[in-house]
Amino acid sequence: MNSRRMILTLALAFAVIAPPAFAQSPLANPSSLREQAPATYKVRFDTSKGVFVVEVTRAWAPQGADRFYNLVKNGFYDNIRFFRVVSGFMVQFGINGDPAIMARWRAAQMPDDPVSQSNKRGTITFATAGPNTRTSQVFINFADNSNLDGMGFAPFGHVVSGMNVVDALNAEYGEGAPRGRGPDQSRLQSEGNAYLAKEFPRMDFIKKATIER
């Protein structure tokens, strides 16, 4: 075997046994990300429309505050889209652009928090599909949506600067499919950012989310 063929053989062998990049990321193992959040902390969102900052108060919803802290700290919200922007209601995000990572978090459900705060304008809350089903998706209220309080939606923080940026997020796609012309969440879960870039090219996105000290 000549040296060139040997190098190629070794390279192919390494490609077979090397784990995918996401498998080496902390995000590949949701159960390992259980760090308790500080009593209060701020998250800076650098987006395609500008910067906004969320302040989280752990006492409002401890489970949600801890989950959000771990997701932000480990880069889950970096380079993801605001995939559901409904004017006068809310903006939703939290589906990772990498389907391999999202597959791990789709089943990483956490217990509910009691609702201690109202879903007022500017508050941020985990989305839920029923009791104890919260994972990674969150929404920011554009308006006073206190009607959500009795449905188990527990705010864990609020926008303290840049609400004008949140208000300016592109709402042209509106509600998601099948009720609206926005993205199909099942396709987004399985195809990631590639689906959104092709079908919804003008959708705003988070460049980076960072814990501020």
Q: Report strand %.
A: 15-25%
Distance between the termini: 57 Å
Report the count of strand segments: 9
One letter per element, helices H and strands E, the order comes to HEEHEEEHEEEHHHE
Low-pLDDT segments: 3-19
Shape: globular
Largest sheet: 9 strands, antiparallel
Strand order of the largest sheet: 3-9-1-2-8-6-7-5-4
Taking all Cα atoms into account, the compactness measure Rg is 19 Å
> If you average the pLDDT, what whole number results?
89
Count up the helices: 6
Structural class: alpha+beta
Binned, the helix content reads 10-25%
Describe the structure.
The chain has 6 helices and 9 strands. It is an alpha+beta fold and 213 residues long. The longest helix has 15 residues. The termini are far apart.
SSE inventory with pairings:
Elements: H1 3-17, E1 40-47, E2 50-57, H2 62-73, E3 80-81, E4 84-86, E5 90-93, H3 99-105, E6 123-126, E7 138-141, E8 155-161, H4 163-167, H5 185-191, H6 193-199, E9 205-212
Helix pairs in contact: 3-5
